[in-house]
From TrEMBL:
InterPro entries: 2Fe-2S-bd (IPR002888), 2Fe-2S-bd_dom_sf (IPR036884), 2Fe-2S_ferredoxin-like_sf (IPR036010), 2Fe-2S_ferredoxin-type (IPR001041), Beta-grasp_dom_sf (IPR012675), Diverse_Oxidoreductases (IPR051452). PROSITE patterns: 2FE2S_FER_2. It comes from the Bacteria. Pathway: Alkaloid degradation; nicotine degradation. It comes from Oryzihumus leptocrescens. Keywords: 2Fe-2S, Iron, Iron-sulfur, Metal-binding, Oxidoreductase. This is Carbon-monoxide dehydrogenase small subunit. Residues 2-78 form the 2Fe-2S ferredoxin-type domain. Pfam families: Fer2, Fer2_2. The keyword Cell cycle does not apply. One of its GO terms (molecular function) is metal ion binding. The keyword Oxidoreductase applies.
């Protein structure tokens, strides 16, 4: 076992883990962040996406020990004072989900995308989210949600 310590959604956690423990399993089973989900066994779906030091990663492809000393943000750490994160709000308003299973990963990947490209074209959104699969094929409204979040951020910056 190895002792690791990391910040998850603003709180510090220190735990013993097996070196082979995947970050997604650590987050779900030891930290209790079950909003981060596992959708495949092949690193394809992106449902497990979290932010590691602000950049999106598939947490099923990262070992928990690799996150030692780093900062992790999950979908459960986005809302502040009971208010949804603007990207969460846009997903809600645009009904960018059906079963919702891909939604946590889609939101985290969208936040990273908008962080590096605040005004993405539709094509850039589709390319930016190509690592995230929606089995319900709800891509149209997901793209709309990202566009809505981008527009809301521009309006907020202008006002
Ligand atoms: S569970 Fe991580 S990519 Fe599918
Ligand atoms: S909403 Fe069902 S997998 Fe995307």
């Amino acid at each position: 076992m190895t002792r690791i310590s990391m910040t998850v959604d603003g709180s510090t956690y220190s735990d013993e883990v097996e070196p082979r423990t995947l970050l997604v399993h650590y987050l779900r089973q030891q930290v209790g962040r079950t909003g981060t989900v596992v959708g495949c066994d092949t690193s394809n779906c992106g449902a497990c996406t979290v932010l590691l030091d602000g950049r999106s990663v598939k947490s099923c492809t990262v070992l928990a020990v690799q996150a030692d000393g780093h900062e992790v943000t999950t979908v459960e750490g986005l809302a502040t004072d009971g208010r949804l994160h603007p990207v969460q709000q846009a997903f809600h308003e645009c009904h960018a989900l059906q079963c919702g299973y891909c939604t946590p990963g889609m939101i985290m990947a969208s936040i990273d995308l908008l962080g590096s490209n605040p005004h993405p074209s539709e094509r850039e959104i589709r390319e930016g989210l190509e690592g995230n699969l929606c089995r319900c094929t709800g891509y149209h409204n997901i793209v709309k949600a990202v566009q809505t979040a981008a527009a809301a951020a521009s309006e907020g910056a202008a006002s």
